[in-house]
Amino acid sequence: MTESDTQIHKGLAGVVVDTTEISSVDAASNSLLYRGYPVQQLAAQCSFEQVAYLLWHGELPSANQLAELEAAERSQRALDDDVVQAVLSLPTTSHPMDVVRTAVSVLGAHDPTAEDSSREANLAKSVRLLAQLPGVVALDQRRRRGQDPVAPRDDLGFSENFLHVTFGEVPDPVVVKAFEVSMVLYAEHSFNASTFTARVIASTLSDLHSAVTGAVGALKGPLHGGANEAVMATFAEIGSAERAAVWLDDALASKRKIMGFGHRVYKHGDSRVPTMRESLVTLVEHYDRQDMLDLYDALESAMTERKNILPNLDYPTGPAYHLMGFDTPTFTPLFVASRITGWTAHVMEQLGANSLIRPLSQYVGPERRDVP
Ligand SMILES: CC(=O)SCCNC(=O)CCNC(=O)[C@H](O)C(C)(C)COP(=O)(O)OP(=O)(O)OC[C@H]1O[C@@H](n2cnc3c(N)ncnc32)[C@H](O)[C@@H]1OP(=O)(O)O
Ligand SMILES: O=C([O-])CC(=O)C(=O)O
């Protein structure tokens, strides 16, 4: 065996494991394309439902195709009683990501087509999950606040309805647009850890709900989706812009990872951050919270100055979701409600040209020995 055969790629860094037609993350040009379209254009001009269709089908929908998807999504928003009971049965001490993970599993167990992995059945399951996740996330936040559930409305788009079932009203269009932009930006990002998890599970010919359940678990971690929640904890710890540089010096001296900064692929900045920061600015103006933007900018410039490590998408979404009124532990479930589109597109792509994902490892344990 040659040396290159045995080279270890810790964390699979830099390893290309397969092809994909779904999205392209290009660190050199700082660009992110969904099926060829720049994500910035999609965020400015398209609804989240159009983006979901694009990810699943490869092309933007015609008016009729969009109407069909919207009708299917809107008609499946109400949660069945078994899902509601499953959510309500979980302790409020559990993390909301545990609730979402459990709910996806329960949805799979009750889905009569769970074991049908044809593309047609998987597409239908993907739309159902897209339709149901907002209800799960909203129900969980509301029960923790001692509030009754709010019934979904089928006269509202995905984002408007999501905010309606969470807060009991549709907020100002500025808030809806910022939320919609976050959904579009979070939807897909090639072979990130949670999507790769979903593809590994799909590659064993397990079912789509199992793949999504595993992906939720992978997204929960603070090195991945859990960072949006952690950013808000950081902001709360720092308190104000004036304290940001001193706080950062202490944190770096204690070898802490600064959440919302850095990225495995983007080393010169996350292509999605400028777009989400623009939405954050609209929220700051709407809620009259310049202090939040000052803190955001102060920590970013201190981090750039000290380490030249730039923010990732979780950095602007954290304060944006806070201003919208979401509880901090609900932030990563919001990521799930968007990324469900990318995960399921990848499950279908994996199954379209499947090969069991099973890498090798280099054994470094004890030599062969006999049981005494
Ligand atoms: C939507 C998303 O999932 S985006 C990612 C969200 N995650 C976060 O925001 C968590 C904070 N960031 C990190 O932990 C990392 O940047 C990761 C995990 C995202 C990427 O990590 P990797 O590509 O493995 O980079 P790696 O950890 O090797 O970092 C290289 C160097 O930069 C440092 N570094 C990277 N990110 C950070 C950070 N956020 N804070 C402090 N130092 C950092 C590392 O400590 C390391 O320093 P060293 O060479 O002195 O040991
Ligand atoms: O690509 C990654 O490693 C993480 C990320 O930004 C995402 O999943 O959106």
TrEMBL record:
Keyword annotations of the record: Transferase, Tricarboxylic acid cycle
Coiled-coil residues: none
Gene Ontology molecular function, alphabetical: citrate synthase activity
Active site: H263, D314
A Pfam short name: Citrate_synt
Keyword field contains Transferase: yes
Record-linked PROSITE patterns: CITRATE_SYNTHASE (PS00480)
Functional pathway: Carbohydrate metabolism; tricarboxylic acid cycle; isocitrate from oxaloacetate: step 1/2
GO biological process: carbohydrate metabolic process; tricarboxylic acid cycle
Catalysed reaction, written as an equation: oxaloacetate + acetyl-CoA + H2O = citrate + CoA + H(+)
Gene3D superfamilies linked to this entry: Citrate Synthase, domain 1 (1.10.580.10), Cytochrome P450-Terp, domain 2 (1.10.230.10)
GO cellular component, one term: cytosol
Family statement: Belongs to the citrate synthase family.
PANTHER family: CITRATE SYNTHASE (PTHR11739), CITRATE SYNTHASE, PEROXISOMAL (PTHR11739:SF4)
Protein name according to UniProt: Citrate synthase
